[in-house]
TrEMBL record:
Protein name (record): SMc04008-like domain-containing protein
Family annotation (InterPro entries): SMc04008-like_domain (IPR023163), SMc04008-like_sf (IPR036810)
Residues of the SMc04008-like domain: 30-94
Pfam families for the chain: DUF1244
Entries under Gene3D superfamilies matching the protein: SMc04008-like
Superkingdom per UniProt: Bacteria
Lineage, highest ranks first: Bacteria, Pseudomonadati, Pseudomonadota, Alphaproteobacteria, Hyphomicrobiales
C-alpha cells in the first residue's frame, strides 16, 4: 500500500472507524463488558480514543460529546435502554483482564 497518498490513507481509516462505530451502534445486544473481555476495548474506549485524537488536534471534546458520537445517542439513554446486568462470570473475567492505564 505504498502507492496510496496520506489523504487516501486517512480517508480509508476514517471509513473503517465509521463502519466499526455503526456496527457497534447496531449491535446493542453486545455489552461493553463482553467487548472488554473479548477484545480489550469497548465503546467507551473508542470514545476516549476519539477525544484523544481531537485533543491532539487542539480541540476539546467532552466525554459526553465523544460518547454520543460513538453510541449515536446520549450515553445515559443507551445505558437505560440497552445495558443489562453483567453475568457474574463476565464480571469475574473483567476483574482479571481489564486494562490498567
Amino acid at each position: 500500500m505504498d502507492d496510496i497518498s496520506e489523504r487516501q490513507r486517512l480517508e480509508y481509516e476514517a471509513a473503517a472507524f465509521r463502519r466499526l462505530r455503526d456496527h457497534l451502534r447496531a449491535r446493542t445486544d453486545v455489552q461493553n463488558i463482553d467487548l472488554m473481555n473479548l477484545a480489550g476495548f469497548c465503546r467507551n474506549c473508542l470514545s476516549n480514543w476519539y477525544r484523544d485524537a481531537a485533543a491532539a488536534d487542539g480541540r476539546e471534546i467532552s466525554k459526553d460529546e465523544a460518547r454520543e458520537i460513538v453510541y449515536g445517542m446520549p450515553y445515559e439513554v443507551w445505558r437505560e435502554t440497552y445495558q443489562t446486568e453483567a453475568a457474574p462470570e463476565s464480571q469475574a473475567r473483567f476483574g482479571t483482564s481489564r486494562p490498567h492505564d
